[in-house]
Write a structure and sequence with these properties.
Length: 291
């Protein structure tokens, strides 16, 4: 306690004078301070190595909030501020880069338009209640690869994924078929999309009707109505696509599938899920319901 007081007031009072008043040696004071600094330095070094390992293990896409969450899960209690400071000092940062953005073409066919049923409420009380879907473009040296994905708002899990060299109704139906096969939703499921011509097509609308799915659509040209899907595609682009140069569509398909199924659904933690991965979130809540 005396040495800590001396350290706290060293700027105002001389160490020698305080040592005389408290009847302690200056050598003892400096041994205490140096020992404490050495322990802190060792802790920081060990923490730095853990941060580097977590950063690398998670594809170098985690910033300080997610790395701090992983450390706390591991039992290393530390503040986000300290993690951010260590990352800055060691030039560790989330590797992201924004390049371009494309959107699907709106097709105004009044008879096939649907009202907006979710109205920017990007949550669900259980899985397979509300899904959102959209299409994005990925550049390869062979040409564009079109990606249709479906996300469950309950857990942010990507439940359907379809990729191809043409952007038509078969692309979006393909992702929906995959999602239905894997999740087996009950009738009454809501699937929210934009007003792209693929979603207003007779083929797509008929497919929804056959499976008892209720369509929901964003307002024309209003991307915020499908913000959850926009967020996923932004994540996909910044964490994978913009960091790669795909020679072929086949290479891009393989990388995107691996990113979604191996990393995003099973390992990537989400702040909206209390820093759990989509699969962890579903498993944890499924266990809680059974108990």
């Amino acid at each position: 306690m005396i040495f800590e007081f001396m350290k706290a007031n060293s700027a105002e009072f001389e160490i020698e004078k305080m040592a005389k008043i408290f009847k302690v040696s200056r050598a003892g004071y400096y041994r205490h301070i140096n020992k404490k600094q050495s322990i802190r330095a060792q802790e920081t070094k060990a923490l730095t190595e853990k941060i580097k390992l977590i950063h690398k293990r998670h594809r170098e896409v985690y910033g300080s909030p997610r790395i701090c969450a992983v450390l706390n899960k591991m039992g290393d209690k530390c503040s986000r501020k300290r993690v951010a400071k260590i990352m800055h000092q060691n030039n560790i940062q989330a590797k992201m880069r924004k390049v371009w953005k494309f959107t699907t073409k709106s097709f105004q066919r009044p008879s096939h338009l649907a009202p907006n049923l979710i109205k920017q409420n990007f949550s669900a009380s259980a899985k397979n209640k509300t899904w959102v879907s959209d299409i994005t473009y990925v550049r390869t040296r062979e040409g564009w690869l079109y990606v249709s994905a479906i996300l469950d708002l309950y857990s942010r899990t990507i439940v359907g994924l379809s990729m191809g060299d043409s952007i038509d109704s078969s692309l979006v139906i393909g992702s929906l078929k995959q999602a239905i096969c894997h999740r087996k939703p009950k009738a009454g499921l809501i699937v929210h999309t934009d007003r792209g011509c693929q979603y207003t097509s007779s083929e797509y609308q008929q497919f929804l009707s056959v499976h008892g799915i209720i369509p929901s659509m964003s307002a024309a040209g209003y991307c915020y109505d499908n913000a959850a899907m926009e967020s996923f595609f932004h994540t996909l682009k910044t964490e994978l696509v913009y960091r790669c140069n795909f020679d072929t569509r086949k290479n891009a398909v393989s990388s995107i599938f691996e990113y979604v199924e191996v990393f995003y659904n099973r390992n990537r933690i989400h702040s909206t899920l209390n820093y759990l991965s989509p699969l962890e979130f579903e498993q944890k809540n499924s266990l809680a319901v059974r108990i």
